[in-house]
Amino acid sequence: MPVPEPALVVAGALVENGRLLLARRASPPELAGLWELPGGKVDPGETPEDALVRELREELGIEVTVGEPVGVDVALSATLTLRAYAVTRFAGTATALEHEALRWVDAADLRGVDLVPADAAWLPDLAALL
Ligand code: DCM
Fold it and tell me: Which residue has the least CA distance to atom 13 on ligand 1?
């Protein structure tokens, strides 16, 4: 039997003036209160870049230009893979439309933040953007 490709979750690393945007999750219970790069699942027939544009519009109310991948893909499970992209340009003011809170962190702040486990794998890559 063919093995299906894992579905992809894409997340955006928005950097402005040496600070990275993090968003605090409201759910599920095991991730609630932890900080993440905002994003979400790629829909069937959608490119990862288009999915990230859509997700950041829905979650933050901004229009972004998607840049290069950041770090390596992270396996969330056998069926789900997580990928981060640099977001180099965006228009509008990021607002927590679906998260509990937003926060802009500098390199020092980033070291002390409680990230969701998958995103913590990217800490060196994220620090290098700041
Ligand atoms: N996820 C993650 N890190 C992110 C974004 C998402 O670990 N920066 C995970 C949480 C969920 C899955 O991806 O297991 C789907 O995300 P969501 O619930 O936001 O659609």
Answer: 9
